[in-house]
Amino acid sequence: MPHGAEPMKNLRFDPNPLWLSGLICLTFGGQSYPVHVLQGSFCLTIWKSNRCGYCQQLTPKYEEAASVLSSHDPPVILAKMDTTVPENAELARNYTHNGVPSIKIFRNGGKTVHDYKGTRETDGIISYLKKHAGPASLEIKSKEDAASLIDEKKIVVVGIFPELCLEKIKNFTALAEDLRVDYDFVHTLDAKFLPHGGPVDKPTIRLFKPFDELYADFEDFQVEAMQNFIEETSVPIMAILDDKPENQAFVNHFLHSPGDKVFLFLNFTTDLDLFKSKYYDLAASYKGKEANFLLGDAETGKRALEYFGLNTDQVPLIFVLAMDGTKYVERHVQPDSLAAWLKDFKDGKLKPYLKSQPIPEVNNEPVKVVVAETLEDMVFNSGKDVLLEFYRLGCKYCEEFAPVLDEIALSFENDAHVLIAKIDGTENDIPRERFEVQGFPTLYMISTAGSLSRFEGNRTKEAVIEFIQTNRGSPAPSNFAKSDLTVSEHAQTDSMKDEL
């Protein structure tokens, strides 16, 4: 469960919920929801509001799936909640980190929470939840069972138990329950039914995969050890990002793997033969050294490149996302220079890459523009108390707050010790160890005393100015008076009601 999430026993719903063919609409306004119902798979969709276009598209498909699954044995309960309802806000924050609609699967009375990873079509929702409502691991009793249950294009984890050991079986079952969203689990008494690998005489985990050595065995049944084995073994020596759907699962394992992540983006049409074998050999040489590798087609990975502030004109391009979040890049790289560049990265000889907008040539507006490359100088080393807004272009609430921020800046234009600034939080790298930005706009005060304070109040001119004066490190001018303020607090408060 995400950090700070409410336990399921605190879920509440309206005394007169709207039932839509088995769909429960939660609002958290009245009596407690009967937790014992959540013994099966409980799929919760987090909704923003009826104004959310994606939510509107999903609604009829979700409701149709709810109708079909309402009679499933065991029960599969589908529910939805509106994140715009004030009573839902705290819980919604825990489950909507990537926006709405957000779909979660709750098990065991809410003790276990998984992301829904199926399609958003009716048939896909139904088949996905039917699978996950059944046993976490299915038994193989014959070669025919193995042929039907072990998909050679997927990762399948097999528990082989030639001798019955209840503790190991219990641990394997618990692991299967916990990881069933990401992997297929099966179990058998005899390894002779399996497509690869020899016989075993003791409990063994055998992981099948459609790449590299095709299978791997493991004998430690401690839950954490099994989980580490599966995560490490499920990442190819070199993952491939292209337009083939079957490769996407292995790309996901790569993205969620521990260690440094190395990306090489190419034009597959013209450059693949030049780079592929050398890059694979390089990846193989780093196996077991906390580094994972991906070879990506530039056109397929165009959005990923743009996310990091890069583009397809710069390929062949090698990019590293280090364990600590630091990034490194080399554009127009040559096949023979890959190994030396990566060694320089490992030796700490490379300069980190920052995703940054260009530094403004003119920056004379009341609210100063900060970009990633000027953040240190303008915010942390300016010798001033800085109010910094993190905004996103096109954000409705950022647009509403913009004139308020301008007025705040004008209020401090004669105070040489205070700087009012803004930074685009999507187009510039933000140091996450310093700022927690989960939505826009977000305001921080960085004082000359070295403290960082996050603004949590109503975004009115008066409230923000009071926040600045309270948290500044330099003394406020004696001639700065509240009577100088001209914006109506009530008017600003009313403008924020839709958000709050």
Count of DSSP helices? 14
Mean pLDDT: 82
Helix content range of the residues, please? 25-40%
Structural class: alpha/beta
Please list the strands of the largest sheet in the order they lie side by side. 1-2-4-3-5-6
Distance between the termini: 25 Å
Beta-strand fraction estimate: 15-25%
Number of strands: 21
Largest sheet: 6 strands, mixed
Enzyme class: isomerase
Keywords: Disulfide bond, Endoplasmic reticulum, Isomerase, Redox-active center, Repeat, Signal
GO molecular function: protein disulfide isomerase activity
InterPro entries: Prot_disulphide_isomerase, Thioredoxin-like_sf, Thioredoxin_domain
Short description:
With 500 residues, the protein is an alpha/beta fold. The protein is built from 14 helices and 21 strands. The N terminus and C terminus are likely disordered.
Fold and architecture overview:
The chain has 500 residues and is of the alpha/beta class. It has helices spanning 53-69, 89-95, 122-133, 143-149, 166-179, 223-233, 248-255, 268-285, 302-307, 338-346, 375-380, 396-411, 461-471, 489-495, and strands at 19-20, 23-26, 41-47, 76-82, 102-107, 112-115, 137-140, 156-160, 184-188, 204-208, 215-218, 239-241, 260-266, 291-297, 317-321, 327-331, 368-369, 385-391, 418-424, 442-446, 452-454. Strands 1-2-4-3-5-6 form a six-stranded mixed β-sheet. Strand 18 (385-391), helix 12 (396-411) and strand 19 (418-424) form a beta-alpha-beta unit. Helix 1 (53-69) packs across helix 3. The two termini are 25 Å apart. It is found in: Endoplasmic reticulum lumen. InterPro entries: Prot_disulphide_isomerase, Thioredoxin-like_sf, Thioredoxin_domain.
